[in-house]
Write a structure and sequence with these properties.
The complex is a heterodimer of chains A (516) and B (500). Chain A is mostly helical. Chain A has helices at 8-23, 39-44, 47-50, 52-70, 79-103, 109-137, 142-171, 205-216, 235-240, 257-263, 282-293, 309-324, 339-359, 387-392, 415-419, 463-467, and strands at residues 221-222, 225-226, 364-366, 374-377, 400-404, 426-428, 450-452, 474-476, 496-497. Classes of the chains: A mainly alpha (516), B alpha/beta (500). Chains A and B meet through loops of A and helix 12 of B.
Chain lengths: 516, 500
């Protein structure tokens, strides 16, 4: 500035006035004491809007100051104006953030740090504004200028830290650098799945519900980040509930907020997890529902719950799900599936699948575009597909969930290869030469829901072996040596499907022309 | 030269002087807007994530996985050409019975167009008695006792409606999603386009017409529209050999046939190299399929390989044109993984103008012709485990009025009939992940208007595609600058309530 320095006292007064004006929005915090209860929560939501102003303006002020320092001869920008609005924004954002924190009952160390940062930033920016006005007015005094610049730098550091914490609360802590090459996925607090034990001995809370909650809810409801006052990180914390009270009504999923909010339609404002986040699959929801229905116990094994095959197979996939991040296989819905996880699984299979597809075109395909599971349909090859061909499937056998070998030349010698496809849900062996001696090998197919052996020479002796397949719901035994009136164990009743013995009704009387 | 240049520069300067802030902003806005629309904006219109259906051009029917895990791997569609009366079969209306013979309320006629009804028609109650059946307690008339055996396997939609009241456009709408000839691709061609077919020795989309009249909508009903023609339906002959010339003529060996095809292929390939018409490749692929079909199709289409009790159950008539033969063929083709099997029965247009078209005569015959084979087909699919992943659809192209048709205002005749009615009709679906023993939607007491859960044809299409593993708006084909879809441009919805 070329003008001679104005007297110090008016400059001080201007600075004090401007600073006071910038700090005034702090009064917004008092709305909590006002009689209109809606006002605080309402204004609080504007925190997410207002906060962008101080971020931009304060950084702009710093940027301009750098230019200023680099070319001292140039005309000074009216930086105090930018600083004024910047610090006013910081104070406003702080006040609104305070309101938001109380309205939405957000807690946790991250939130606490963000709050402290916000308050510090507001104070710091107002002080910086004060020195800025002084420095502009008293261009002669180098000390004031350098104090101001130091404060501005501190403000910026505080700003970046606070803004980053805020972003982490909203988007998750590894949002920013998730795709950076150095990024390493935060290891899940390793769940110890008792993989060696049968599913029935798994704990329903510790091994089923907790992993699902971790996958779907912890981002916002763990000890580290407690939105809505709700922490789902431990059984005890779940019992405490959130700001709207308890989230569980033992035995009544429909009355439990925890289930209600997941069950709302995706478009509903209150739906959880929020619309843009990965959603629990219907099976995962069903598992949570079952858990609440049985009283939401901390201890208790799956043996106490009757789970159908679909749910059991989902439970069986939880360890893989949590390590890969892929959603459970989907049926007819467009819920989010993590394409990256599927791509990773497919990458491991690619070579084997490609060579199989070259050998048997159109016979082996992915179950869907969103899945790394495979369907095998050898039926069109008919007699051209033999026991020996089963060996070729070995590299991908774990991923085959659907297999149609109807009318092929497979025999009992393929038993081992079939039994090795442990994730099969549907197996069709109709019109093949398989016999009762194949059945023991099927014992490993614990996910099998549908078995088609029509037109084979299987006899009632096979029934005891099939009885042990708990997931099995449909067994097609038409045109076998199992007669429709065969005595069958209670557990098999309703699962066996025979040819319909009812003769078609052939008579249909004609009314003939009627006189009007 | 120099002067010219100067003049031009002056002119340019003048123009720039005239340029205002508004001009500048406008230019920016369109430029930026265009850039936005060209990139990020595409996402707004759902265009960013198109599914890829490209295949090796020499195997256009190669299998592609569905978008998500499918409940139905194949479809058997039983189209009842002429539109069967829902009021004589599935839509029980006791109130209508009470007013039968009375004049139709004026409000039924206002603002409505009819194909034949003129003046003041009389109401007409159902000609056949209804009763409840099965665990589901669904109402059904006495005309379809064999379907009734499966009443707990099927799902009725009693609230279908269409916007077409003449046969051809209504059939086209149901089968191709568009009432205009050639403007849409048929359901079956969409299915084979989206999924391909696992059995490469048979067409992926086969059409079986049961003699009599061909459907009014013509062959466009199984046409491929804008899709490559390789996806169109392959029609089998209703009588005699279903496919002609499957066997080589005397003196031609399979080897010789192969050499002929190789020569033709070579010429076609040369033609493709120079002209680049993809239809040439379609032709090559068709020749190859025909060659493979010579073995597999003869076997698949040979009904004489079925044992007697099967023929008896279906009521087949070997060598004749009949729906029963086609139902049995449909099962044989489903067993062989044909993706889409389309059957047409005919003669359901019960206007009452003649015995053949009368609800009290011809209609009953149609029921008898179809009921036994449809019942047997459902029996058979169930026993063989095919119903689990085969979607069966039964329906006409529209419904029939609760008023008796008075053709040309003429006096009532001995034949009873009903006029076309696009406002409400009933269809049923079975298998393929559809909720069994369930009824959806409701019509008013007269069976005239839908009062609950109306289902548009495009909603039915969206639901069928959903069962095949596609969101209806993701199965699309870029043609004439538009992402063509079976459901058209209007919003459709999957009827989630009827899904198992």
């Amino acid at each position: 500035m070329q003008d001679p320095a104005p007297p110090a006292r008016p400059a001080l007064r201007t600075a004090a006035l401007l600073s006071a004006a910038a700090a005034a929005p702090a009064l917004l915090m008092l709305t909590e004491r006002m009689p209109w209860a809606w006002l605080g929560p309402f204004l609080g939501r504007f925190h997410t809007v207002i906060l962008h102003f101080p971020v931009a303006l304060l950084l702009l002020a710093a940027l301009l100051e750098v230019f200023q320092a680099a070319s001292p001869g140039a005309r000074r920008f009216p930086l105090s104006v930018v600083m004024f609005f910047g610090s006013m924004g910081a104070v406003t954002a702080m006040a609104l953030g305070w309101l938001l924190m109380h309205a939405d009952a957000v807690k946790g160390p991250l939130v606490h740090r963000h709050m402290q940062g916000g308050i510090a930033l507001a104070i710091l920016s107002v002080v910086t504004l004060f020195t800025c006005v002084l420095a502009e007015a008293e261009s002669g005094r180098r000390t004031v200028l350098w104090i101001y610049r130091g404060l501005l730098a501190a403000t910026c550091v505080m700003l970046v830290r606070t803004a980053h914490d805020g972003g982490s609360i909203t988007h998750g802590e590894d949002f920013l650098d998730e795709y950076a090459p150095w990024h390493k996925a935060k290891p899940h607090e390793a769940f110890q799945f008792p993989v060696s034990k049968p599913l029935a001995q798994w704990d329903i809370y510790a091994h089923v519900v907790a992993p699902i909650l971790q996958e779907r809810c912890y981002e916002c409801h763990s000890a580290r980040n407690v939105k809505g006052g709700l922490e789902l990180g431990s059984w005890a914390a779940i019992q405490r509930g959130g700001k709207d009270g308890p989230v569980l009504t033992a035995g009544a999923p429909e009355k439990s907020l925890l289930y209600q909010r997941i069950d709302l339609p995706l478009e509903h404002q209150e739906h959880m997890p929020p619309r843009r986040r990965a959603q629990p699959s219907p099976e995962e929801m069903a598992l949570i529902r079952r858990w609440i229905a049985m009283g939401a116990p901390e201890k208790g094994t799956l043996a106490a719950v009757h789970l159908d095959s679909r749910l059991l197979s989902v439970v069986g996939q939880l360890p893989a799900l949590l390590s890969s991040g892929a959603a459970a296989p989907e049926g007819g819905d467009s819920r989010e599936i993590d394409p990256a996880a599927v791509a990773k699984l497919r990458a491991g299979l690619a070579a084997a699948v490609a060579s199989l597809q070259a050998k048997y075109p159109n016979i082996i395909t992915y179950e869907s575009r969103q899945s790394a599971d495979l369907c095998l349909n050898a039926a069109p090859l008919g007699g051209g597909f033999r026991d020996a061909d089963m060996a070729v499937l070995a590299p991908v056998r774990d991923r085959i969930v659907w297999a149609d070998l109807s009318g092929t030349a497979v025999t009992d010698r393929a038993a081992q290869a079939i039994g090795a496809m442990r994730n099969l849900r549907v197996l069709k062996l109709a019109n093949t030469a398989v016999t009762d001696s194949l059945v023991p090998a099927l014992a490993s197919l614990q996910h099998l829901e549908s078995l088609n052996i029509h037109g084979t020479s299987v006899t009632p002796a096979a029934m005891s072996g099939l009885e042990r397949l708990h997931a099995l719901r449909r067994i097609y035994v038409a045109f076998t040596k199992i007669p429709a009136d065969t005595p069958c164990p209670e557990s098999m009743r309703g699962k066996l499907i025979f040819a319909n013995a009812v003769a078609p009704v052939l008579e249909l009387t004609n009314l003939g022309p009627q006189k009007p | 030269m120099n002067t010219d240049e100067n003049l031009l520069r002056r002119l340019r300067m003048e123009q720039l002087h005239g340029e205002t802030r508004r001009h500048f902003l406008r230019t920016c806005a369109t430029g930026l807007g265009a850039m936005f629309l060209g990139t990020a904006g595409r996402g707004l219109f759902g265009a960013s994530e198109r599914l890829d259906f490209t295949r090796d051009p020499t195997s256009p029917l190669a299998v592609l996985p569905p978008q998500f895990a499918a409940k139905a791997r194949r479809v058997i569609y039983l189209h009842m050409d002429g539109a069967p009366s829902q009021l004589e079969l599935f839509d029980y209306k006791p109130e209508l019975q009470k007013v039968s013979g009375q004049d139709c309320p004026q409000s039924f006629l206002e603002g409505k167009r009819f194909a034949f009804i003129n003046g003041m028609p009389k109401m007409l109650g159902s000609l056949y008695p209804f009763h409840q059946s099965g665990k589901s307690g669904a109402w059904i008339s006495d005309r379809m006792p064999n379907l009734e055996r499966h009443i707990d396997d099927v799902c009725f939609i009693r609230s279908m409606r269409t916007d077409q009241f003449n046969h051809a456009p209504a059939q086209l709408l149901v089968q191709t999603g568009s009432p205009r000839l050639g403007a849409g691709a048929s359901l079956g061609s969409w299915a084979t386009y989206g999924l391909g077919t696992e059995n490469q020795n048979l067409p992926g989309f086969m059409v079986l017409v049961s003699g009599g009249n061909n459907p009014d909508g013509g062959k466009a009903l199984w046409g491929s529209g804008f899709l490559p023609s390789v996806y169109q339906g392959v029609q089998c002959r209703p009588k005699g050999d279903p496919v002609l010339y499957l066997s080589n003529p005397p003196g031609v060996s399979r080897n010789m046939r192969r050499r002929v095809l190789d020569a033709i292929d070579e010429i076609n390939q040369q033609n493709y190299q120079s002209v680049g018409d993809p239809e040439t490749l379609t032709r090559v692929a068709q020749y190859e399929m025909a060659f493979r079909m010579q073995i597999e199709a003869s076997e698949a289409l040979d009904l004489s390989r079925e044992p007697d009790y099967v023929h008896k159950a279906y009521g087949t008539k070997p060598g004749e044109e009949c729906f029963a033969n086609n139902c049995l063929l449909a099962r044989r083709l489903a067993e062989r993984d044909v993706r889409f099997i389309q059957l047409y029965h005919w003669g359901w247009d019960s206007h009452g103008a003649s015995a053949k078209e009368a609800l009290n005569v011809g209609f009953s015959d149609r029921c008898r012709e179809t009921d036994v084979p449809v019942g047997a087909l459902l029996d058979d699919l169930k026993a063989r485990g095919l119903l689990e992943d085969t979607l069966v659809v039964w329906g006409g192209e529209f419904g029939r009025t609760p008023m008796q048709e008075n053709r040309g205002g003429a006096a009532q005749t001995e034949f009873k009939g009903r006029d076309h009615h696009p406002g409400a009709f009933t269809i049923w679906l079975a298998g393929g992940g559809i909720k069994p023993g369930f009824s959806y939607g409701e019509t008013d007491a007269m069976g005239y208007e839908i009062v609950e859960n109306p289902v548009e044809v495009r909603d039915l299409h969206a639901t069928i595609l959903n069962q095949l593993g596609f969101e209806y708006h993701k199965l699309s084909y870029l043609f004439q600058g538009l992402e063509q879809k079976l459901t058209g441009v209007l919003p459709a919805k999957v009827i989630r309530d009827i899904l198992a």
